[in-house]
Amino acid sequence: MVLNLTDLKEYMQEAIMEPLDHKNLDKDVPYFAEVVSTTENVAVFIWENLKKLLPVGTLYKVKVYETDQNVVVYKGEETISEK
């Protein structure tokens, strides 16, 4: 087991549900005061919040369904080191 599911549920509650559930993103979430509340940016917001809470290296991707036909997958920013 990579992560205790009880811990994961708590992390998801803190990173996703508390800041976003039943909120007007543009008015009630400070992050979206200066960032357009697209599905893509919601995925980035969730990624950034979860990354702060999860053990390093355990977050692989965030998938947000806007509709059955519109799905966003975010895997974080790639860091390319120069040699």
TrEMBL record:
GO terms for biological process: tetrahydrobiopterin biosynthetic process. Signal peptide: none annotated. InterPro entries: 6-PTP_synth/QueD, 6-PTP_synth/QueD_sf, PTPS_His_AS. Its cofactor is Zn(2+). GO terms for cellular component: mitochondrion. Keywords: Lyase, Metal-binding, Tetrahydrobiopterin biosynthesis, Zinc. Pathway: Cofactor biosynthesis; tetrahydrobiopterin biosynthesis; tetrahydrobiopterin from 7,8-dihydroneopterin triphosphate: step 1/3. It comes from the Eukaryota. Gene3D superfamilies: 6-pyruvoyl tetrahydropterin synthase/QueD (3.30.479.10). Its EC number is 4.2.3.12. One of its GO terms (molecular function) is metal ion binding. Involved in the biosynthesis of tetrahydrobiopterin, an essential cofactor of aromatic amino acid hydroxylases. Catalyzes the transformation of 7,8-dihydroneopterin triphosphate into 6-pyruvoyl tetrahydropterin. Belongs to the PTPS family. This is 6-pyruvoyl tetrahydrobiopterin synthase. The lineage of its organism: Eukaryota, Metazoa, Chordata, Craniata, Vertebrata.
